[in-house]
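Hi L.,

You mentioned the student needs an example of a multi-chain input paired with its predicted structure. This one should do, with 716 residues in total across all chains.
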Amino acid sequence: MAKATPNVLAVTGNEAVAEAMRQIDPDVVCAYPITPQTEIVQLYAQLVADGKVSTEFVTAESEHSAMSAAIGAAAAGARTMTATSSQGFALMWELLYIASSYRLPIVMTVVNRALSGPINIHCDHSDSIGGRDSGWIQIYGENHQQAYDNCLQAVRIAEHPDVRLPVMHMYDGYVISGAIGPLTPLEDSRVREFIGPYQPVNPLLDVQHPVTVGPFDGLHGWYFEHKVAQNLAMERAYQVLQDVADEFARLTGRQYGLIDPYRLEDAEIAIVVVGSTAGTTRLVVDQLRAKGVKAGMVRVRVFRPFPYHTFAQALQHVKVVGVLDRADSFGAQGGPVFLEIRAALYDNDPRPQVLPFIYGLGGRDIFPHDIEQAFGVLDEAAKRVRRVSTQRRYLNLRQGRGLEHERK
Amino acid sequence: MAEARKRRPRVCDYYQNEDQFARGVALCAGCALELNLRFVSRVLGKDVILVGTPSCSAPVLHGQNTKAWHRHPYYACVMTGVASSATGLTRYYEKAGIEATVVCHTGDGCAMDVGFQTLSGAAERNEKMIYITYDNEGYMNTGIQQSSGTPYGAATTTTPLGQASRGKSTAAKNMPMIVAMHDVPYVATATLSHLEDYAKKLVKAKAAAKEGFAYIHVFCPCVPGWRIPSDASIQVCRVAVRTNYFPLWEKEQGVWRITYKVRDPQPLSELTRLVGKLRHLDEDEVARLQAQVDYRYRVLEALCAAFG
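Structure written out for the whole complex:
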């Protein structure tokens, strides 16, 4: 590690991704400014202006157009990237489905931010969680290094012949995007080697072999089979995600999996969490372990395809699992990650208790004592014979403003 | 006392009410947008419902958490839905018999890019509202990115200068002209160095909005975004008018008129040397921008001559 120290840079999360993009040097980048993603686009625009990349750069007039342009470029056969956040992601929504169903390996960075209203520019996961069913592979990073590493791996995963699906990779707005953290970048030549050349399938650019992208699926067409094919590609993606991660590990020494467990082997209670909060959770796990509590954690790295088998195995021996969601699904039994985890563990024998926690909406801070409180609930539940209520529990929720009225 | 009354600018006669905004607001020093907000509010009066978006205006118009900075009813809209949401408001006000003027107030990024579709749609349906675009020629709130209001050659964070770039390579949309081509009751341009001209236009727009769509395009310099001193925003407005970079005109019920005729237009270099984002332009580039300004002015003159 000491050898690597001179290469460690202090960067913002957005700078880390802009650096990855510079090294990837995609054929086309299309984007529209939105906080907190904007910095990536600005940095990239400067690289284009300085002639340091060969990318065709499109400043679109909206995110709808940014994603449309990305789809057009990808359909023409270009290696294409974009980035967005929050409302921008929401505005892209109809195009997300089109990108995945046309099997275009676009790579998108999503800097997580809350959705309006009220307007809020801070971090939660409501934006990308909303694209859960859009047919994109979704990878969540925890820190600056992962933002960079995931961006590089995303290209390989998306373009893999077994997959050919768009990939979005996420990290927390401000907490990672704007704060400074360590980054150990790869050399340009090694990135180029890892990424390799791109061989598009049926590109529109090949005018000698004309194709139609997105023809009308008539009355007795193949829409249904088309959708099944997309799901089969998602299933094949598990292996590709792991293979690409393993290859990346050989290159960097940084090993990633579909999930990211911590002190889980003998854990009796565990928290499942997404994004930068994993760092705080690790700290709390260590503190509880020092007190003799058998606490553990799993970070969700890949959310689509959801590695339910891996979770079921990893959490087999755990008595009570708490899921920390930084997005809510109003009217559902719990947050989106909770629902996935609970479903994944249904066939486990013995079946663990799974409890939903909601935290950090609109960037509300989460402190170690909040996570400790969640572990307290899990610990209490583990000691009981009867199962405890699966009602949502909120961490660091303020009391007093309007909620009493709603609860009447 | 009499002395003081004599010096009161004539534009004050147009004021309907006290300033409806807090005295200290969260805008930059020298921001032309702040003057625009206060001015529009004072001239149009209290019965104005504002519709705005995330933008430089948002910290003030949206308020902060549970506190407001102004006394107008306000709808905080997304950028893609301004004129259509305002349509919903005006239609129901009309049905309910409420006398009120709905004023959309957005930047150029919303009006000319991401919200252009709803603006054009509302204009075509001739919805009874005023749409005011404060044009600071880019996305200033997110950090000075180019929009389709950014002029040729301007340096922004997405059209930066570099070895392979000389700033924005294309011209700005001629937005007021585009809206005028929707043949709505009233379209005008205005700026903050010519307040009486602007006030008259607001009064006309308010009257026109009882019949249909009224549009005012306001030239609104941005101190940090354009890299100008904080005491220069009004001077930049004035020079923009005097160089014909931003001519003041109106189209009222099909009649075109230049409302402030510049007798001896200054060369555009007077503007480009004032404004940091354009200062790098060389002689040829200024000439190119000048040619574009001249062309647009001739189109305007021709329309005024034909339908004046």
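You could point out the following to them. The first strand of chain A starts at residue 9 and ends at 12. The CA atoms of residues 49 and 57 of chain A lie 10 Å apart.

Best wishes,
N.
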